[in-house]
Amino acid sequence: xxxxxxxxxxxxxxxxxxxxxxxxxxxxxxxxxxxxxxxxxxxxxxxxxxxxxxxxxxxxxxxxxxxxxxxxxxx
Length: 75
Hints:
The protein is an alpha+beta fold. Helices cover 28% and strands 23% of the residues. The protein contains 2 helices and 4 strands. The longest helix is centred in the C-terminal third of the chain and has 12 residues, at 62-73. The termini are close together.
């Protein structure tokens, strides 16, 4: 769903945390996702190397993840 919304996944930690980017500043991405009700961590919280990434945590129930996926697909 993230790739379908124009994101590139650059790193995955056990498929629990994804580091993704749309090659824009992390805060632009945070805002875009927040407007769709999806909360992520801005990459610059983790240092300069993350300035163009967001960290997505899949710690919600399958049902909540499905809702987020549906929000991304409406674009």
